[in-house]
Input
Amino acid sequence: MIAAAAAEGTGSVSPAPHDPPELVRIRDLSVRFRTRRGAFSRTTDEVMAVDGVNLTIHQGRTLGLVGGTGSGKSTIAHVVMGMVGLTSGSVHVAGRDISRISGAERLAHQRLVQVVLQDPYSSLNPRMTIGDIIAEPLTVGRLRMDATAHRERRSRVAELLDVVGLPANRAARYPHQFSGGQRQRIAIARALAPRPRLIVLDEPTSALDVSVRAQILTLLKNLQDELGVTYLVISHDLVTVAYLASEVAVMHLGRIVEVGPMASLFRTPRHPYTLELLASMPGASGAFLAQPRPSVPSAASLPATACRYAIRCALRTRLGDPERCVEADPALRPVGSHHEAACHFTDDAADLAVLADVEPTA
Output
């Protein structure tokens, strides 16, 4: 269960007694980027990509991180993978503070956390055989390999190809000889090679044909059941998240606006932005999206209102534009069992969900 504990003085969610051990612990995470503009790039702007995020992912579970483009979800994944430095806060993976790792520890972290990217066509080196691609994580950092190591490597590649449903005798072929779905299976096999504890799935099915998506999702689900691996799913596709995730965190402009068990969040959403995302899913009426609202701001031009969603909030409009939305910043607070939302009017949001008919058929 996600323990999206807020800062001191705000609501927090206590973990359930039966929760497995923590694998990823994120506390007060903030990430800022500096950008340059102007004729000679002399002007420097600061963009707040992630602002005070708190999340916990438990071993063997799946956290779905959803939100629009620029919401900060990919930045969080990159921090967890060690690809982006954090500005403040802390991130611990398997008990290790990743902001302090270096040298051999960084190599160990790379083995611990693997990634499957969204585009199987560009994520595989076209000049390498798939056997070499899958085995690459096993050889990083090793200067020499004897005959025994080579045999073990070939055996591991054959084992992984079988695990993802591909014949072992295709290890000598190249990526262009496979379909998109098969390439994604190869990418999954490569991610599994060093026996990671966490796999980041960055839009794992968005580049695939509809007929292939279900096969890849089923494979990922089965692998988690068999191997006990933990997933962090980054997606704007709530159908994918609904199938894979046990918990979901919704991000908007760098902040978590709602977090909780998948079933609870999908059936009883308590934040207006979550309603908007659900209304865009197949099976929803879509009427909620027809209301005229201002365009979505970006992280580079955050709205002046206290609540970053206030200028687009259909619930605020329905309530007569209460001043509280623009004067007081809503913090995450409990709205159910292990369920939190950052909205001043969560009860009214529940009523709006019924009126908007946003419950989708995932």
Summary: Residues 262-356 form one domain.
